[in-house]
């Protein structure tokens, strides 16, 4: 062993290599530099292997702890006992012989920059004995090896050499690079490491009872300490970290063996179950309030509200945004060289004129897939919610016109949008059409209002037929506005039992398009020609404003798919719940991803090859109608989305509680509050609230005795 003090007059800490201070210091620096070179070369594999080890252990580990683990493991594998076992096993397998070292190798000294701590917390000195004579040839050989570039580790006393390259490959699992020095497999190795880290995301989960877990751990580890000559009882303690269960067991002695078990693996320090729970609430369209109430009713442990919103902001929203942008780019690339017909409509997050968000959606007419969505906050419209639809339409059109060739746009009968399309020069050449369903709805409202008069009640009976005739006229006019008007005005002759007349409107034949009517099957009373009801109907259908609007229905465009999407949006963002801007935008994009992913579902076919239908009741018509039965939704995108969210956790720097600056389009940059009014003090509001129940008023309202 080394002496505990220097030779000479100057006392100090003992030398590590021999008795000469300069030689010992030079040797220490050389070996420390070698260690730094090895770790720098293996940095990428170090990070990958550490992440894998953290996932397997289920607990965080610092760089120093991981280095201590590697060095301890390698020292064990290079020990004489371990080498002897390897030598014996190799001889039995008739493979390459490995000489068993007679003394402890110097690998612990050559690769260890800090002493390995023992159980007592003090550094454990190497057990190798050194001689001053052995250091002279050692210096010479190390200098020769460094000059040649082939670094070897030399055992003291006997000069048996072991290449450092094999040590690095053994510790860091490195693969040899190509001769030209290119690292062609680095991307594959990184992808494989990421794949290993994301493995817990796809694992199957189950609900378990804590008592059953404790019973299992007691059966495995027992109830008595396993340390020699210790009969202490193991104490099992449980701790919940969100939805994760952590169980620890140990006896009363400080340095006796203890253990820890966790129910969930970790992703960069965060329990995977907590991350998936927060992400699953958003992806499935649920709310944290209802999910938390479900967990409470079952006495299940759940994450906190702050954790949910932080996960949504840091990981879920960016992952959903990336998936939505990729889906958009795929749609735009398929429509790049086509003339596209888009339909647009707005949906407010609450009924009435007090909405906070307006979602304006643009959909491709033929495929029924959502192309773009704009979320408009009421603060962007100066606090006036009726103006949000125009802002959303303008943004959506500008976005689409930069990427695809918009030939025609279909909207509802919004007057501001109609004026914008008619007067704005940048929309010249784009055909503007209205939804035929909104047109028939407007016609029905006009007729209902006129039929309230006593002399016009006969119109009520003919309203469904007039509405159907409007649909027929729009679908059969072949884009000809005059033909549409002539066909629609023919209803004025049909309601008075005239099915052929001398002169048709706009030069078209004066004849109904239906077959001969059987009087026995006709169930409505004919109107009297020239009666008040007939004149009123003629005045409404030939009105200047109504006839001018008919040009918007000549192409027979129907936005039923868009209306269905807005109804589907309620699954992700119900109107009875309020959301922040990030949460509402994320849920809207999730609804669009869901709709586009399942837009091409085929109709179900029976075993005989017949298409299947189902009955559906209409509250409006109070009748049943047949509806095609589509294949069930698969939600195949959710697995990729959950993996993307977990990957965001791995690559996003910083802690979960870090501050995230507002996005450029966040309406809170305009004003922090939706009301855009100065906030009154709470004391004034409480005083105003209590003033309604003043003592004088309470005394005056008391009943007499």
Describe this structure as you would to a colleague:
There is one protein chain. This protein has 705 residues and is α+β, with helices and mostly antiparallel strands. Among the domains are: 21-178 and 187-195, no CATH class; 438-553, no CATH class. Helices cover 45% and strands 11% of the residues. The chain has 25 helices and 14 strands. It has helices at residues 21-41, 43-57, 63-77, 80-92, 107-111, 132-148, 164-172, 186-197, 210-221, 272-283, 288-298, 305-334, 388-401, 415-423, 436-450, 458-476, 481-489, 491-494, 532-541, 544-549, 560-572, 581-597, 637-651, 682-690, 695-700; strands at residues 152-154, 161-163, 235-241, 244-250, 259-262, 266-267, 270-271, 339-348, 357-364, 370-377, 405-411, 431-434, 613-618, 623-628. A five-stranded mixed β-sheet has the order 10-9-8-11-12, sandwiched between helices. It has a three-stranded antiparallel β-sheet with strand order 3-4-5, with no helix packed on it. Strands 1-2 form a two-stranded antiparallel ribbon. The radius of gyration is 40 Å and the shape is elongated. Residues 1-10, 86-184 and 697-701 have low confidence and may be disordered.
